[in-house]
Amino acid sequence: MAEFVVLWERVQEVQFSDDPDKIIWKWTANGVYSSKSAYAIQFVGSYCTFNTSALWKAKAEGKHRFFAWLQVQAKIQTADNLLLKGIACDPEVWFLVREWTGGLITMPLPGVQVEEWWNLSLQAATAENRSKVAAILIYTGWNLWNERTEEFSRGLHNQLYEF
């Protein structure tokens, strides 16, 4: 009964406006519902949409390949939390990796999901370089993730320092 009274008091504090409600469907660009978008969103995340063969054939340790498989699907919880808090990877890192590999690695573009960037990076590579590119992406992602989560856990995420 006490919980009901507390709920009632909170509901009484809610201020409603006279403006009409506006319903926006977040699964389309224009905000309008369509059955096509409803069917499409029904299956998002239920199956893997990227070609995993390059990932599993990469010359990297199993734990790193497994990490990359989760990362490409946006299933790395800590990385997601860091992004939600506005702590993103400095693009300078990927510029240096691209320079170090002689342009073998493509830079991640703003707003591009990891899965799409993974696919674009591997499509740009020749057949003989795909496993090398995949390994570089995997190890770079692994090391960045480890460094960022470690510095976040130590409370250093707001401090500038050199690696």
Short summary of the structure?
The protein is mainly alpha-helical and 163 residues long. It has helices spanning 2-13, 35-42, 53-57, 62-72, 77-84, 91-100, 114-124, 130-153. The longest helix has 24 residues, at 130-153.
Description:
There is one protein chain. The protein is mostly helical. The chain folds into two domains: 2-42, no CATH class; 53-153, no CATH class. 55% of the residues lie in helices and 0% in strands. It has eight helices and no strands. The chain has helices at 2-13, 35-42, 53-57, 62-72, 77-84, 91-100, 114-124, 130-153. Helix 4 crosses helix 8 (130-153). The protein is elongated. The model has no long low-confidence stretch (mean pLDDT 79).
Low-confidence stretches: none
Approximate helicity band? 40-55%
The total tally of domains equals 2
Percent in strands: under 5%
Please tag this protein with its features.
Reverse transcriptase zinc-binding domain-containing protein, RVT-Znf, 163 residues, single chain, mainly alpha, 2 domains
Architecture blueprint of SSEs:
Elements: H1 2-13, H2 35-42, H3 53-57, H4 62-72, H5 77-84, H6 91-100, H7 114-124, H8 130-153
Helix pairs in contact: 4-8, 7-8
